[in-house]
Design brief:
Blueprint: E1 2-10, H1 18-31, E2 35-51, E3 54-66, H2 68-80, E4 84-92
Antiparallel strand pairs: 1-3, 1-4, 2-3
Length: 103
């Protein structure tokens, strides 16, 4: 199992769908004995530059421990999900449990 830190940026129009999307990703992660070490909702934030004519977006931070197969499935799903503007996946050496500095 490997550790990953994921930041997902959502469009502002999908405010009501964000909780359902997060539940869907939790289900994918936990389905194959993966663990979620940290899940933070950073809320609505201003983007550094406009992306597809959007100046604001919702941010989510997730620290997980999953196998490579599940991570590949998540990457593919992030690309196909129309509610996601951008995502960033970073491989970590150990799990991050403490709150981030952004909160």
């Amino acid at each position: 199992m490997r550790h990953y830190e994921i930041v997902i940026i959502f469009y502002t129009e999908v405010t009501s769908k964000i909780t359902n999307i997060i539940k869907y990703y939790k289900k994918i992660i936990e389905q194959d004995k993966g663990k979620i070490h940290r899940l933070e909702y950073w809320g609505l934030r201003k983007l550094a530059y406009p992306i597809k004519k959007n100046n604001h977006a919702y941010y989510i931070l997730i620290n997980i421990e999953v196998c490579k197969k599940v991570m590949n499935d998540l990457k593919k799903d992030f690309k196909l999900n129309n509610s996601i503007i951008r995502n960033l996946i970073i491989k970590k050496k150990k799990p991050c449990i403490k709150n981030s500095f952004i909160l």
